[in-house]
Amino acid sequence: MNIAFLASHGGSNMQAVIDACKAGRLDARPVVVICNNAGAPALDRAARAGIPGYHLCVGRRCPDEAALDREILATLRRHAADLIVLAGYMKKIGPTVLAAYRGRIVNIHPALLPRFGGRGMYGRHVHAAVLAAGERETGVTVHLIDENYDTGPILAQVTVPVRPDDTVDSLAARVLEREHVILSETLQRIVQGDIKLPAASGPAP
After folding, report:
1. What residue segments make up the domains of the chain, in order of their start?
2. Does pTM surpass 0.70?
3. Which residues of 78-117 are buried (b: 16+ CB within 10 A; e: fewer)?
């Protein structure tokens, strides 16, 4: 299975997947990295791993969101991507890409959806909300993307305890450790056929 990554910043989850592929824990091949941020460390990670990386955003090459959507799809098809993994991608997926890869766009969220999801709930905002709510347990959710924020079908979840002395930073670090593991495990379950996707075989038409 050929995996494409969409990222905006560090790409640590992407790196965990790349490492799992290299170690033989994930029977897949990373084929392309697309970032909307030219300075994203994820592009540096891609270069070090020998994976083609592209900076694609609205600008001279793509004058509007519709043009950007088409360019992202063209790039995915050029690299024969079977599955898209969102690795901290801070933009909503455009309708053209969503239609072509429906059921094959995987996201990871740092909480137990459907709680603490939705627009504006990402990164530190999620962990701050969990602590403010007095939760004793949080976790990680791997799910498919649909037209809305964090509402697609859930593929896997794992819990993480919230400690009485947790800060946003300490909770975020502990959740991220679990993210790095469950994402690769879930992708391997997809590859093995344990998790059935709507159209998981072959490049998008």
Report:
1. 1-102, 108-179
2. yes
3. ebebbbbbbbbbeeebbebbbebbbbbbbbbbbbbbebbb
